[in-house]
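Q: Can I see a sequence and its folded structure?
A: Here is a first one.
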Amino acid sequence: MGSFRQRLWTVSALAGLCAACAAAPNTVVDEVEDDAGVAQTTETEKERPYVFGWMFADTSNMEPRGGTTKGPSVLPISGTSAAWDALQEPGLSKKEKDRRAILAMAGGYRTSFDFLETAGFTEGYEPPKPYRSWGTEHVYVVEDSPEFVSLQHILVMFFEDEEGEVQGPAVVKHWRQDWQYEDAQINVYTGHDRWEQLQLSAGDVEGTWSQAVYQVDDSPRYQAIGKWTHDQNFSAWESGETWRPLPRREFSVRSDYHALIGTNRHTILPTGWLHEEDNLKAVLMHEGQITDKPVAFLAREAGVNRYELITGHDFSGGDEYWEKSAAFWSDVRGAWDALLTENPKVTKLEVEGMPMLMEMLVYSSEIETYDSEVGKAYIAEKLQTHYEW
């Protein structure tokens, strides 16, 4: 397991602790046909400008930051996905159609992550570099019932070295999303590493689904409610206003704001799905309040995250990791569920040394045969060290 742990740390270093692993940001994958009419893929290296940005800014200053590693080409699926076809079956109830839209986010993807500040609200504002990255990721169905669906994202990355040899896989547990129907108790982020319970009325949540997003170590990130709508050729869910901590692509390079406040839209498509973000970067005075200083919001940010279904990519490394570690992560989820249900407030503490995120990833990567009693004791100790409630 030592070699896997080494790969884990390598990917974390490249990706800003798993914010979004990057592969071949300059690689364009085209589909062509050979002489026999069989679809194949080719790579074309060329300049890829940031087409939605600041037209009159110095292009050298606006070159996107993010991933610089290179990966092998991948092949998108042809036709529509089985999950999309299931979503189109006639006679489905609204609730069942919602559930199938959520399940349509499972599968193996080429993922891309693009973030750009679109407006600045401070005197002398200069836009920072946009963020761009992409990787290969499998979304697993952890739980599925009529009123609850849990999806776990796991990155399974291959890289090309300077000689063009393919290395990997590098397997890293990524984020998790839980969907609950008519959820009357949600945990919201209130700033400065604190989450609080919010009780909603039956009228508030009628016909809605909550989406709870968890970080790589299954600690909470944000939660919001919204309704699914279904059109002939897409389905979409849009959240209400949602507070979030700084993302990992930001907190290692930014200290001038404290939270993102925005909305999320998830759109299910015939060959994948799209996650759009509309964020304000907020300076906070204390939990739950914008600062009373002249500068309350620094900027507005647009985010577009694409999940495109692919075929032929080897995701077996993710399967193996999840088979060995799933019971451990189930115990982690159970500990967090109890903690968030029983306590009105939970606060993350500043602790010296290795972050809990990395401790948990290393622990899970070394599991061969899992002992739940030992694992639960380890989880409890980590939560007591890193959180207060």
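Q: Show me another, different protein.
A: A second, unrelated one:
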Amino acid sequence: MRNSQNMKKRYFWLASAAVAIVMISGCGQSTTNESTQNEPKSETDVNQNNEIEEELTRDDEIMNENAEIAEITEEVTVSSVIDATTIVVINQEGEEETVKLLLIETPENIPEEGLTEEFGTEANNLTEMYVDGARVLLERGNSDSNENGYTLGHIWLTSTEGPFNLSELLLIRGLAKVVETDESNTKYLDEFREYEQRAKDEAAESDHPINIWAVEGYVTDDGFDQSIEF
């Protein structure tokens, strides 16, 4: 009987001691956590937080840009590329349209018509690489079509960095020049001139004909002078 009572007392003491240890441990951990939380953040932590905030901000900007472009465009599928600035698309009604890009001109490269100008092949290849067979966004111009029945407009593509204009690529690469032929369709004119200037600056810093601006006199008001030797 005494042994039984002693065992019960021993069990009770051990259980109480275990509870006390757990409580002490918990208090210590709480104190440690509180101490850790009160420690000032390191420079690395601050930089990481700033990077995360900047990334989230940029994500919001991209979403807003995509939403803005979506409001003024319609999704179409590119069925073929005639040249760098002339693209055949299938619209949402299933009809075929030939789209002519606004505000830019590139050297010609239509071998079947005997037109092969310097940098024309590069311009065509760039357009084909980005849009041939792709689903893109068509922004129609103020005039729906020109005298040839071509749809006037801009082609937009989307990326992880946000939407971008196909003409922007051609201008930045120095494969197109800005042309202003219609006062009703001058949207993006200022931006396009900035892209064009970037290509001019790049050509000025190079000793090789890397784009249409690299050889003096090649780009004219009437097109591209094929008598120039590269």
